[in-house]
Amino acid sequence: MIAFLSGVVREVREHSAIVLTGGVGYEVLCPASTLAKLKVGDVAELHTRLVVREDAWTLFGFSETDSLKLFELLTSVTGVGPKLGLALLSAMPVSALAQGLLSGDSKLLSSVSGVGKKTAERLVLELQNKVPEHLAAPTVGGKRQRVISTAGQDAVEALLALGFRDAQVRSVVSELLASDSEQSADQLIRKSLGRLR
C-alpha cells in the first residue's frame, strides 16, 4: 500500500499530476483543490490511496488528510467508485461536502455531475452519521473554523432562489466566510454574485 508520496511535480494535467520520487514518475489522480496547489518543479507531499482493480492500479492523492478521509468514506458506499468520489471532492470544498452529508442535503450532492438522485440519497443514508462533524467547518490557515453561519445560510438560500447551482453557491459562500466569518448576508450575496456570474 502506498500511503504517502513526496516528490517533485513534473507535470500537472486536468485530473492528475506526475510526481517524480525515487527515479519513478507516479501519475496521481487528485481533486481540483489539490491540483490547484501543485506547481511544476515544486515538491509535493500527498496523502495517497492505491486502488487495485483487475485491469488497473490507480493512485489517488490529496493535499490534506481530511480530503483523504472523506474520499474513503464516499467510496465505502455501494455504487460510489473512486472517480465519483473524486468528482464530489472536486465540485466543492471538504467543508461544504461534509456539511451536505451531515445535514442530509441530497439535492446538493445530486447537483454534482455524475451523481444521480438515488446515489445522492444513498450517500446521505449511509454517511450522515459517519462523517466527523469537524470536517464540516471551513479551513483558514490550516485550522478548521466554525460551520457556516446564519448569514451564510441566508445568502445560500437567496442565491439558490436566483437560479445558481447548489454546489457552486455553497463553495463560494464557504470561501468568503473562511476569509471573514463576520460578513452579513447582504455582503456575502454581493460578493458571491461577482464570482458566480
General description of the model:
The protein is an alpha+beta fold. It has 3 domains: 4-63, OB fold (Dihydrolipoamide Acetyltransferase, E2P) (Beta Barrel); 65-132, DNA polymerase, domain 1, CATH 1.10.150; 148-197, Ubiquitin-associated (UBA) domain (Helicase, Ruva Protein, domain 3), CATH 1.10.8. Helix content is 45%, strand content 21%. The chain contains 9 helices and 7 strands. It has a 5-stranded mixed beta barrel with strand order 1-2-3-5-4. A two-stranded antiparallel sheet has the order 6-7. α2 packs across α3 (82-91). The termini are far apart. The relative contact order is 0.10. Residues 140-147 have low confidence and may be disordered.
Q: Which architecture of the largest domain does the CATH hierarchy give at level 2? A: Orthogonal Bundle
Question: What is the count of distinct domains?
Answer: 3
How large is the count of helical segments? Answer: 9
From the alpha carbons, calculate the radius of gyration and give it in angstroms. Answer: 17 Å
Cα distance, first to last residue? Answer: 43 Å
Family: Belongs to the RuvA family.
Domain Helix-hairpin-helix DNA-binding motif class: 72-91, 107-126
Pfam family, one: HHH_5
InterPro entries: DNA_helicase_Holl-junc_RuvA_I, Hlx-hairpin-Hlx_DNA-bd_motif, NA-bd_OB-fold, RuvA, RuvA_2-like, RuvA_C, RuvA_C_sf
